[in-house]
Amino acid sequence: MNGLVDRLRGIYSETTIEHILRPRNTEIIRNPDGFAVAGSGCGESMKIWLKYRDGIIEESAFWTDGCAATIACGSMGTDLVQGKSAIEALAITARDIADALIDLPEGNFHCAELAAGALRLALKDLLSVQQQPWKKLYRK
Prior knowledge:
CATH topology: Sufe protein. Chain: A
Largest sheet: 3 strands, antiparallel
Structural class: alpha+beta
Shape: elongated
Strand content: 15-25%
């Protein structure tokens, strides 16, 4: 494990390494208020689940089949939306995710774009369900 961490330190910040090795928000949310699946040009995908209570995102979760940087971006992105209104969360960008990870290499910026895009789709779904609550009846 130390060899892996040493190699990661040569590429990523300590914050990014923490999110790679101990990703947050990885449990699937049952009966979510918002859900989306997004894909990237390099073949990775990300799923996002959101739980909305009293006008704020109470809980968020992700799953990805992507690389270490994609895992870190999904973890950070789901951290950033918690406690925010849907409108505040829609303002979160790929740059915000990359900056929060501290020095995410530009070669991995597409990972932050995937996370931000998946979040945006899940938030749009959440807002759609708010307008048409019957849609939630078809969630698992």
